[in-house]
Automatic annotation (TrEMBL), chain A:
Signal sequence extent: none
Compartment list: Nucleus
Residues annotated as domain Transcription factor Tfb2 C-terminal: 401-468
The name this protein goes by in its record: General transcription factor IIH subunit 4
Similarity section: Belongs to the TFB2 family.
One GO CC annotation: nucleus
TrEMBL record, chain B:
Quaternary organization: Part of a TFIID-containing RNA polymerase II pre-initiation complex that is composed of TBP and at least GTF2A1, GTF2A2, GTF2E1, GTF2E2, GTF2F1, GTF2H2, GTF2H3, GTF2H4, GTF2H5, GTF2B, TCEA1, ERCC2, ERCC3, TAF1, TAF2, TAF3, TAF4, TAF5, TAF6, TAF7, TAF8, TAF9, TAF10, TAF11, TAF12 and TAF13. Component of the 7-subunit TFIIH core complex composed of XPB/ERCC3, XPD/ERCC2, GTF2H1, GTF2H2, GTF2H3, GTF2H4 and GTF2H5, which is active in NER.
Pfam families: Tfb4 (PF03850)
Primary localisation category: nucleus
InterPro entries from the UniProt entry: TFIIH_Tfb4/GTF2H3, vWFA_dom_sf
Domain of life: Eukaryota
Function: Component of the general transcription and DNA repair factor IIH (TFIIH) core complex, which is involved in general and transcription-coupled nucleotide excision repair (NER) of damaged DNA and, when complexed to CAK, in RNA transcription by RNA polymerase II. In NER, TFIIH acts by opening DNA around the lesion to allow the excision of the damaged oligonucleotide and its replacement by a new DNA fragment. In transcription, TFIIH has an essential role in transcription initiation.
This protein's UniProt keywords: DNA damage, DNA repair, Metal-binding, Nucleus, Transcription, Transcription regulation, Zinc, Zinc-finger
Gene Ontology MF term list: zinc ion binding
Location within or outside the cell: Nucleus
GO cellular component, one term: transcription factor TFIIH core complex
Protein name, per record: General transcription factor IIH subunit 3
From TrEMBL, chain C:
Keyword Zinc-finger found: yes
Protein name, as recorded: General transcription factor IIH subunit
Family under the similarity heading: Belongs to the GTF2H2 family.
UniProt key word Nucleotide-binding: no
Residue span, C2H2-type domain: 357-380
Length: 474, 301, 397
C-alpha cells in the first residue's frame, strides 16, 4: 500500500515581507503608553483637549454629556443615548473611551454598572473649556515685538525648513544639509538607512511612502519618532508632549514667551525650530512664533485632510486627466521626483512637468512598496484647484479605479502551505480521506481523477493519524 | 494554492462614518431687554449668556476646523458679537482655559455690553428674530462664496430666545425659512419661555430641532444634549422626536386658524369668509354663483 | 407687426462693440470682468421688477416642446433634445417651488402632429418622470406650431378666468408645417388672453416673434446652453396679470396632520396612490385629510379627487408672497467710506470696493454680493427686518 507521498509543496511568501510605513494616530500612540504616563498626561488641560478632539464623534458627545455629571451614569442609560441602528458603533466607542481611560467602570449602589469620567481628565477638560487652574507655561506676558512676523512670513519659513528635511531624504542637493540630530531621527524611524558600502544615509521604501503623505501626517509621524528618542536625550516625555500640544493649540501669527521654560524644554524648542515648527529670530530671543506645521498637529491623524476654511491657502498643482495624463505645475525637484515614482515623465518645462500613468509605471511603484491608496492619496492631496471644482471627486474615477485594479492584479494569488497526498490505491480510500479533510476544513485542493489531495500543512499530523487509524481498521 | 476572485480588501479597523467637514454654527441670542423673561428677572441674562458661551466653546472644542459666530438680536438692531467687527482682541491666557475660548468669551461679553449700552431706554418687546436670521444667512452665504474649492461647509443657525413670535414678522420668517432650506442651512430653535409656533415651522421646514426647555436652570445641559450634535450625527442619537407642526393658515381678517378658507387670486391673502373686495390688494371680486353655493355648504358643515 | 417695435433685428441695431466691455484686470485675467458683467445683468433684471403690480399667481402653463428632427442637432451638448429635457427638469422643480399652486402641462410636436404628454397638473415629481421618458422619443419630421397651440388652447380655454394662462414654446426647428392659417390661431390666443413665450434654439423666426408680440409674451433666441437656462428660468417669475384676467376668491382647504393627543392614528389608504400602478397605495398612519370630504393625501399641494377642493398648506402660499412683496431695490453709490462693513454679510469694505448699495428704506449699506443674494434668494432686506421701525414697511407700502 503506497502511503501518501508527502511532499510539501508551496512555499510561503509573506506578502508583508517588507513592513509598510505604519502611521499611528494620537490614540494608537497613547494606547501604547503605560497607564501611569497616561494619568500624568491627563494632568495637563492641553492633552485632555487633544485627546478629546481625537475621539470618535459619538464618543465626544458622550463625554460632553457626562462632563457635568458627578455620579457614575448607568451603562444602560449611556447605551440608550445612541439609536438602535448604530449599536455597533456604540460598542466600539465605549471600548475606545475605556482604552484611553477617559472613563472608567464604576458600580452604582443597587448593583448596576456605570461609567464615570476619569477625575483628572474631567477636571482638566473643564479647565480648558471654562477656565480656572494655572496658565500654560508659555503664555507669560510679553511686550510687543518690534520685529513682529506675519503669517505669510511664518508660512514660507516653515515650508522652507520642512522641505529641507525632505530634500535631504531624496538626496537632491539643492538645499544645505540638516543637522546630525535630524539624520539620527530619520535613521531611527527607518525612513533612511546607512548605505552598505559607504555608510551614507539613503532613503528606504518607508521613506518613499513617507514622502507621499500629506504635510501634516509627515510632521506628526516625524515628531512621534522623535518622541521615541526623547528619553534617550534626557528629556522628559510628558513635559515635551505637553509643550507640543500647547504649541498645537496656540494662535498662528502670535508670539509666545520662553520665560519659565525648563532647560530641557529649551532644548526641545531648538529641535522644533530646526524642523520649522517654531520660528525664533535668535536662540536667546526670549520669544518664539509657532508656525502652521505646529498648529493643530494632531488633526493629521484625522487622515482625511479636510482643507480648512478661509485661512488655509490650498496650493495644489497636479491635474489628472481621464486619459491618464498628469500635469504638474511645479518647479521643485522634490515634487518632480515624487511624481516620477509612479508616472512616466514625458515632457519637462521650467514650471510644468507632463507625465502619464501607465500600468508599468504604477506596477513599478507598487513593486517599490508604495500602495495604490498612497498614490491616489498623493494625487488627491495636491490636486489643482481646477480639479476641486467637483468637490467630491477631485480625480477622474476611471483613473482611481484603474490604479486600484493594477494593485489588485498583483494580489491575485494567495499562498498557503500544504501537503500533497497522492497515489491512493483505490477511489474509496481517496474518498474517505477527502471526506475527512473536507469536514474538518483542512482541504485546500483536490482532484478526483488523479486522486490527489492538498491538505493544510498544520493539519498534516492530524490527517496522517486519521489515515493510520483508518488503514489499520480496514 | 488557490485562486482568489478579485475583490476589494476588507477594512481591518471598524471605520465608522464621521463628518470631516467644517461645521459653522451661528448662534442668535435674543438679548432684547424688553422681552418679558428679562423684564421679570434681569439676572437671567447673565445665566443665559454664560450657558451660550460655554455651548459655543464646546462647539469649537469638537473639531479644530469648526467655526462660530454669535449674534445679539434686539428690536432696533441686530449685531454680530463674535467675531466682532474690527481687529480681534489681543488676549493672553490668564488661566488654564484654551486661548481661543478665552478670546470667544471676552469678545462676546465686551460686544454685548457695548450693544446693550447702545439700546435706547424706550423698550420694545418684540425681538426681530427673522431679521437676525436674514443677516445670518447673508453671512453664511459669504462664507460659502469665499471658501476654498474642495472644502465642505455645513452651516446651521441656533436661535435662543425668550420672547414670543408674532405674526407681524410672518412674511420675513417665511422668506428666511425657505432661503435656509434652499441653502441647506439647518435652523434649530431653543425656546426659553414661550412656545413659538412660527419658529417651530421653520425648524420643520429646514430639518432642525425645536425645543422648549422645561426649566431655565438646566439651559447649558439642554444646549449640550440637544443642539451640540451636528445634524449628520443626530440620527445616531436618540433626541426629542419632532413634534407635529400645525401648518394651518390663519385668516388675514381675524387671525384665526381655519380649515377651509378663501384665497384672493391676485395677492393670495386668506379670508375665512367670502367678501366682495380684497382688503389687502383692493381687488373687486365678481360674485360667482359657485362661491355662494359653496358658502352655504360650509354653513351646513 | 407693430411699427414702433423697439426690438429690432440684431443686424438692424447699432454696431455694438461687445468686446470692449471686457477688460483685463491687473493680472491680465478676464474672469473678474466677466463676473462683473453677469452681476450687472442680474441687477438690471432685478431693477425691472416693479413693486405692487398685479401678478398672475395661479398659473396654468403649457410647455410645448419641439420634438422634430431638428432637435437631434448636436449644437447643444449632447443633443438639443437632451439638453432641453435636462434644463426643463430643473425648471419644473424650481417652478413648483416658486409657484406652488400653479400647474404645468406638456405637449410635444413631432411629425406634424401635437401630442399631449402631461395634462395640467401640479406635481413636480410626476412631471419630471414623464420628462425622463421623453429621452427615447424618436425625433422625426417637422413640427406643427399651429397644432401644438390649438391643443393647448383647447385645454386652457376651459379654465376659470382668474387663472393666469400661459404657453411656453421651445422651438428647435426653423419651419412649421400647419394645416391652416396660423394667424387665426394667434388671434384666438390673443382674444383668450393666453400669453405665449417662445425660446428659439436656432435662429429668429418671424412667426414666433409675431406670436410672442401679439400675445404679450417674450421671444428670445439662445446663445448657448447657459443662456438657454437663463431664459428658461426667467419664466419662473409670475408674469403681470393679463388685462382680461378676472380676480376671484378661491376656496381652498388647509388640511392638518394633528392627531388627537395620546391616540394612535388609524391605518388608512391615501387617495393619491390609489390607482397608480407602479407604486400602489399602502396603508399608512398620518397624512393630510381634506377638511371637506376627509379623503387622505400623502403630500400637498393637491386637488382633492373626491370633492375638487384645492388643498394647500400656509407655507405654500407664503412661498409666493415674495413675488408680490419683493424687497426694495437698492441704490448704487460709489464707495466713499459710507460704512465700514456690509450690513448683511459683515464683509469689511476695503479700498477695492467700487460700489456699495443702499437700501432706500432702512438706509443701510450692502455689498454687491448681498444685493444679489437679498433680491434673488432671500427677498427680505436684512437691514429693514432687524429694525422695528422698518421691518413692516416692506409689506404695506
Amino acid at each position: 500500500m503506497a502511503d501518501n507521498g508527502s511532499s510539501s509543496t508551496s512555499a510561503v511568501l509573506s506578502l508583508n515581507k517588507f513592513s509598510n510605513l505604519e502611521c499611528k494616530n494620537l490614540h494608537d500612540y497613547l494606547r501604547t503608553r503605560p497607564q501611569n504616563i497616561l494619568e500624568k498626561l491627563y494632568n495637563h488641560p492641553t492633552i485632555c483637549l487633544a485627546v478629546y478632539r481625537e475621539l470618535p464623534e459619538l464618543a465626544r458627545q458622550y463625554v460632553i454629556r457626562i462632563l457635568f455629571v458627578e455620579q457614575p451614569v448607568p451603562q444602560a442609560v449611556v447605551a440608550s443615548w445612541g439609536s438602535q441602528a448604530f449599536s455597533k458603533e456604540h460598542v466600539y466607542v465605549s471600548k475606545v473611551l475605556s482604552e484611553l481611560s477617559v472613563w472608567q467602570e464604576a458600580s452604582i449602589p443597587g448593583g448596576l454598572l456605570g461609567w464615570i469620567l476619569s477625575p483628572t481628565f474631567k477636571k482638566n477638560l473643564k479647565i480648558t473649556l471654562l477656565g480656572g487652574g494655572k496658565p500654560w507655561s508659555m503664555s507669560s506676558a510679553l511686550d510687543t515685538d518690534n520685529k513682529a512676523r506675519d503669517v505669510a512670513f511664518l508660512d514660507s519659513y516653515s515650508l522652507e525648513r520642512w522641505e529641507c528635511v525632505l530634500h535631504y531624504m531624496v538626496g537632491s542637493q539643492q538645499q544645505e544639509g540638516i543637522s546630525a540630530d535630524a539624520v539620527r531621527i530619520l535613521l531611527h524611524a527607518g525612513l533612511m538607512k546607512r548605505d552598505e558600502e559607504d555608510g551614507s544615509p539613503v532613503i528606504t521604501r518607508q521613506g518613499f511612502q513617507f514622502l507621499l503623505l500629506d504635510r501634516h501626517a509627515q510632521v506628526w509621524h516625524f515628531i512621534l519618532q522623535y518622541l521615541d528618542t526623547v528619553e534617550q536625550r534626557g528629556l522628559d516625555l510628558v513635559e515635551c508632549l505637553t509643550f507640543l500640544f500647547q504649541l498645537s493649540f496656540s494662535t498662528l501669527g502670535k508670539d509666545y514667551s520662553t520665560e519659565g521654560m525648563s532647560q530641557g524644554l529649551l532644548v526641545f524648542l531648538q529641535h522644533l525650530r530646526e524642523f520649522g515648527l517654531v520660528y525664533q529670530r535668535k536662540r536667546k530671543a526670549g520669544r518664539f512664533y509657532p508656525t502652521r506645521l505646529a498648529i493643530n498637529i494632531t488633526s493629521s491623524a484625522a487622515n482625511k485632510s479636510a482643507p480648512v476654511l478661509d485661512d488655509d491657502t490650498h496650493k495644489g498643482y497636479i491635474v489628472v486627466e481621464t486619459n491618464y495624463r498628469v500635469y504638474a505645475y511645479t518647479d521643485s525637484n522634490l515634487q518632480v521626483a515624487l511624481i516620477s515614482l509612479f508616472t512616466e515623465l514625458m515632457y519637462r518645462f521650467p514650471n510644468l512637468v507632463v507625465g502619464v500613468i501607465t500600468r508599468e509605471s504604477v506596477r513599478q511603484a507598487l513593486r517599490g512598496g508604495i500602495t495604490a491608496d498612497q498614490i491616489i492619496g498623493y494625487l488627491k492631496q495636491h490636486a489643482h484647484e481646477q480639479m476641486l471644482q467637483d468637490s467630491r471627486n477631485p480625480l477622474p474615477p476611471t483613473v482611481v479605479d484603474q490604479i486600484k485594479l493594477w494593485e489588485l492584479e498583483r494580489n491575485r494569488l494567495t499562498y498557503q502551505e500544504g501537503v500533497l497526498y497522492s497515489q491512493f490505491l483505490s477511489q474509496a480510500d481517496y474518498n474517505v480521506l477527502k471526506e475527512y479533510a473536507q469536514t474538518n476544513g483542512h482541504l485546500i485542493w483536490s482532484h478526483k481523477e488523479k486522486r490527489t489531495l492538498v491538505i493544510n500543512k498544520c493539519a498534516h499530523d492530524d490527517v496522517k493519524k486519521f489515515w493510520k487509524r483508518y488503514s489499520k481498521g480496514s | 494554492m488557490k485562486m482568489n476572485n478579485i475583490e476589494l480588501p476588507a477594512e481591518q479597523t471598524p471605520e465608522f462614518s464621521s463628518v470631516d467637514e467644517t461645521s459653522l454654527i451661528v448662534v442668535i441670542f435674543d438679548s432684547n431687554p424688553g422681552q418679558k423673561l428679562l423684564r421679570d428677572n434681569p439676572h437671567i441674562l447673565t445665566h443665559c449668556l454664560d450657558s451660550i458661551i460655554a455651548f459655543s466653546n464646546s462647539h469649537l472644542m469638537q473639531k479644530a476646523q469648526n467655526k462660530l459666530a454669535v449674534m445679539a438680536c434686539h428690536s432696533k438692531k441686530s449685531e454680530f458679537i463674535f467675531p466682532g467687527s474690527g481687529k480681534p482682541l489681543d488676549v493672553r491666557q490668564i488661566d488654564g482655559q484654551y486661548e481661543t475660548f478665552t478670546l470667544v468669551e471676552k469678545t462676546i461679553k465686551q460686544n454685548l455690553a457695548k450693544h446693550l449700552a447702545g439700546e435706547s431706554p424706550m423698550l420694545n418687546t418684540e425681538s426681530l428674530l427673522a431679521g437676525a436670521i436674514a443677516m445670518a444667512l447673508c453671512y453664511i452665504a459669504r462664507l460659502q462664496r469665499s471658501k476654498s474649492p474642495g472644502c465642505m461647509l455645513n452651516s446651521r443657525i441656533l436661535v435662543v430666545t425668550g420672547s414670543s413670535d408674532s405674526a407681524m414678522q410672518y412674511m420675513n420668517y417665511m422668506n428666511v425659512f425657505f432661503t435656509a432650506q434652499k441653502q441647506n442651512v439647518v435652523i434649530d430653535v431653543c425656546a426659553l419661555d414661550q412656545h413659538l409656533s412660527l419658529l417651530q415651522q421653520g425648524c420643520d421646514i429646514t430639518g432642525g430641532l425645536y425645543l422648549k426647555i422645561p426649566q431655565l436652570q438646566g439651559l447649558l445641559q439642554y444646549l449640550l444634549w440637544v443642539f451640540l450634535p451636528e445634524p449628520p450625527i443626530r440620527q445616531k442619537l436618540v433626541l426629542p422626536p419632532p413634534a407635529k407642526v400645525d401648518y394651518r393658515a390663519a385668516c388675514f381678517c381675524h387671525r384665526e386658524l381655519i380649515d377651509i378658507g378663501y384665497v384672493c387670486s391676485v395677492c393670495l391673502s386668506i379670508f375665512c369668509k367670502f367678501s366682495p373686495i380684497c382688503t389687502t390688494c383692493h381687488t373687486v371680486f365678481k360674485i360667482p354663483p359657485l362661491a355662494v353655493k359653496a358658502k352655504k355648504k360650509k354653513i351646513k358643515l | 407687426m407693430d411699427e414702433d417695435d423697439p426690438k429690432e433685428y440684431r443686424w438692424e441695431t447699432g454696431y455694438e462693440k461687445t468686446w470692449e466691455a471686457i477688460k483685463e484686470d491687473d493680472e491680465g485675467f478676464l474672469e473678474a470682468s466677466i463676473a462683473d458683467i453677469i452681476q450687472r445683468a442680474k441687477r438690471k433684471r432685478q431693477s425691472k421688477k416693479v413693486y405692487g403690480t398685479k401678478l398672475g399667481m395661479m398659473r396654468h402653463l403649457y410647455v410645448i416642446l419641439d420634438c422634430s428632427e431638428s432637435m437631434s442637432s448636436q449644437d447643444l451638448k449632447p443633443t438639443r433634445l437632451i439638453c432641453s429635457l435636462k434644463l426643463l427638469e430643473g425648471f419644473m422643480e424650481e417652478f413648483f417651488d416658486q409657484n406652488p399652486i400653479s400647474q404645468i402641462g406638456v405637449i410635444i410636436m413631432h411629425n406634424k402632429r401635437a401630442e399631449k404628454i402631461m395634462n395640467l397638473a401640479g406635481n413636480a415629481r410626476k412631471h419630471i418622470k414623464s420628462l425622463k421618458n421623453l429621452n427615447k422619443t424618436t425625433l422625426v419630421g417637422e413640427p406643427s406650431l399651429q397644432n401644438g397651440l390649438e391643443m393647448a388652447l383647447k385645454s386652457l380655454k376651459s379654465l376659470p378666468t382668474h387663472a393666469s394662462r400661459e404657453i411656453l414654446i421651445i422651438m428647435g426647428s426653423l419651419t412649421t408645417c400647419d394645416p391652416s392659417d396660423i394667424n387665426s390661431t394667434i388671434e384666438s390666443l390673443k382674444k383668450e388672453g393666453i400669453r405665449c413665450s417662445v425660446i428659439g434654439l436656432a435662429a429668429e423666426v418671424y412667426i414666433c416673434k409675431l406670436l410672442a408680440d401679439k400675445t404679450g409674451g417674450v421671444y428670445n433666441v439662445i446663445l448657448d446652453d447657459s443662456h438657454f437656462k437663463d431664459l428658461l428660468y426667467q419664466q419662473i417669475d409670475p408674469p403681470p396679470a393679463a388685462c382680461g384676467q378676472e380676480s376671484n376668491l378661491i376656496k381652498m382647504g388647509f388640511p392638518h396632520q394633528m392627531a388627537v393627543e395620546g391616540t394612535e392614528e388609524p391605518l388608512t389608504m391615501c387617495m393619491c396612490h390609489v390607482d397608480s400602478i407602479d407604486e400602489g397605495s399602502k396603508l399608512t398612519t398620518g397624512g393630510y385629510y381634506c377638511p371637506q370630504c376627509y379623503s387622505k393625501y400623502c403630500e400637498l399641494p393637491v386637488e382633492c379627487r373626491a370633492c375638487g377642493l384645492t388643498l394647500v398648506s400656509a407655507p405654500h402660499l407664503a412661498r409666493s408672497y415674495h413675488h408680490l412683496f419683493p424687497a426694495m431695490n437698492y441704490k448704487e453709490f460709489a464707495y466713499e467710506n459710507q460704512a465700514e462693513i456690509c450690513s448683511g454679510c459683515q464683509k469689511q469694505f476695503t479700498e477695492n470696493e467700487k460700489e456699495v448699495y443702499k437700501c432706500p428704506n432702512c438706509n443701510n449699506y450692502f455689498c454687491i454680493d448681498c444685493d444679489i443674494f437679498v433680491h434673488e434668494t432671500l427677498h427680505t432686506c436684512p437691514g429693514c427686518a432687524t429694525n422695528s421701525s422698518t421691518f413692516q414697511l416692506t409689506q404695506t407700502g
